[in-house]
Design a protein that fits this description.
alpha/beta; 9 helices
Length: 256
């Protein structure tokens, strides 16, 4: 990650990342730390060791706040704590998600509510929580993680793909609402990124090969491959880009 481009305007920026201690989120945390940003992140599991690792690797320690993002009051309290420590949040990355597999006939109302809470509801209320601070700061950037899963019409997790599609609608509406205050809202849709969780739960040799065969670029995606796009969307380099969805998937879906 030391070869990532430098975005000087991200130095000392107050960044808040959901799910920032593992998977793609951990790479995002590291990427922003290497830019000199002040990073706070939340997740349920303990990330103290990860914070130690990041401080040693980057010379910049993130602020870890334990939080279940389905607890909206706790999520918004965590955002307030991050703002108290680092100044108003000017970059929000709604990254945390759960793509637990399920079939329609197995879904209960409780499971539906749980999945939507993680994959969509928390995004809205995190954006709501950072809005006053971003207004006061004169602007900001909100980056909502979606997925190409709904674009592909994938089966096996219909509530997850429903939320993915909903994130695009949310992104466009918030971009329109927040734009007059110079707050940009964009979505980022990764392809099949080979996090440790994906390798442990879902990756098979046949399935991965079939997916790579659909890619224009034949390399598998790693968490670090997503970092540059997020830094770009967070930086003023993209200051006139809002309401858009940036796809980083090796060319599985081609849009335009």
């Amino acid at each position: 990650m030391t070869d990532d481009p430098s975005f000087p305007d991200l130095r000392n920026a107050s960044v808040f990342i959901t799910g920032g201690g593992s998977g793609i989120g951990a790479s995002l945390t590291e990427g922003f730390l290497r830019q000199g940003a002040k990073v706070a992140f939340v997740q349920r599991s303990d990330a103290s060791a990860f914070c130690d690792e990041m401080e040693q690797a980057t010379g910049n320690r993130p602020l870890f706040i334990p939080c279940d993002i389905t607890d909206i009051a706790a999520l918004q309290a965590a955002i307030a704590k991050a703002a108290e420590a680092h100044g108003p949040v000017t970059v929000l990355v709604n990254n945390a998600a759960n793509d637990k597999r399920h079939e329609t006939l197995e879904v209960t109302e409780d499971f539906w509510d749980w999945s939507i809470s993680i994959n969509l509801k928390a995004y809205f209320f995190a954006a709501q929580a950072v809005l006053p601070g971003m207004k006061a700061a004169g602007g900001g950037s909100i980056i909502n993680f979606s997925s190409i899963s709904y674009m592909m019409g994938n089966a096996g997790y219909p509530i997850y793909t429903t939320a993915n599609s909903g994130i695009n609608g949310l992104t466009r509406s918030l971009a329109r609402e927040f734009g007059p205050d110079r707050i940009r809202v964009n979505a980022l849709a990764p392809g099949w990124v080979l996090t440790q969780k994906q390798k442990d739960l879902w990756v098979t040799e046949e399935g991965l090969q079939a997916h790579v065969d659909r890619q224009c670029l034949k390399d598998t995606l790693e968490p670090a491959d997503i970092v540059g796009g997020v830094l770009f969307l967070a930086s003023k380099v993209s200051k006139m880009m809002t309401g858009q969805s940036l796809v980083i998937d090796g060319g599985v879906v081609v849009t335009g």
